[in-house]
Write a structure and sequence with these properties.
The complex is a heterodimer of chains A (125) and B (145). Chain A is an alpha+beta fold and 125 residues long. Chain A is 26% helix and 31% strand. A 5-stranded antiparallel β-sheet of chain A has the order 1-3-4-5-2, with helices on one face. In chain A, strand 4 and strand 5 form a beta hairpin. Chain B has a 5-stranded antiparallel β-sheet. In chain B, strand 4 and strand 5 form a beta hairpin. The chains are: A alpha+beta (125), B alpha+beta (145). At the A-B interface, helix 1, helix 3 and strand 2 of A face helix 2 and strand 2 of B.
Amino acid sequence: VRKFEPNLPELELPPVTQRELCDYAAASGDPNPIHLDPAAASRAGLPGVIAHGMLIASKMVERARVLRPGADLARAQFRFKAMTLLGDRLILKAQDGGEGRLELQAVKADGTVVCTAAFQTGPKG
Amino acid sequence: MSSSPATESRSGVTRRVGESSSLHRETIESQAVAAFARAIGAPLDGTVPPTWLTRGRQGEFELLQKLGVPLSSVLHGEQEYEWLGTLRVGMDLCHVTRLAEAVVKRGSKALLYFLKLDTRFTDGPEGRPVACGRTVIVLREELPS
């Protein structure tokens, strides 16, 4: 496993809000109440409402597209490592891995990695 | 000790590998694309964000319901997407999701189920492949203490 050594500009996202999660739930068609309802999150044993993994992953894809303008995205692999709660500020860090590879991590202010992403650009398929 | 109905249905998940969702179908519409792009902070330039595919989790949700797994009890562990073509407004995006693998790991306090769900996206019900998705869902079941 190669070490993650960010060598591209990082981006700090604004704190996660409930409004943002509601908008994403509606736009993506994800009905899971653990992202919307504190009572449902509590019943599921969670410390509070958590952000959708794919909302964070989507922001990482958009960051990759900004860092690699015009590149054709062929593959992406995301691993969700920790939960993102309301108010969390995420920083997107990025490493150019060469040969069309791009790796990103979404990290909380305290250093907790919430999601890792590996992208391969180049011809699709 | 008797197991709850929920425990029985979860344990049964490993025997249901190979089951598929029905065919889900949605024409990609520009207004819905704009709402999605706004929600994730993508440019509003008429292109379809690559993670539009996450709208194609309806097959996963249907399959989990069929397997008796409540959505609020699962966590998204991993996600992979492979794009074989470009998503465009007007495309008749279809998908079917299949339970590809179910692995149970026993910890000291809980059983962890790792469900691998494969989704094939096509342009039209019998059309050319557009993308593949591979999802790992994690389901935790506390062991009696």
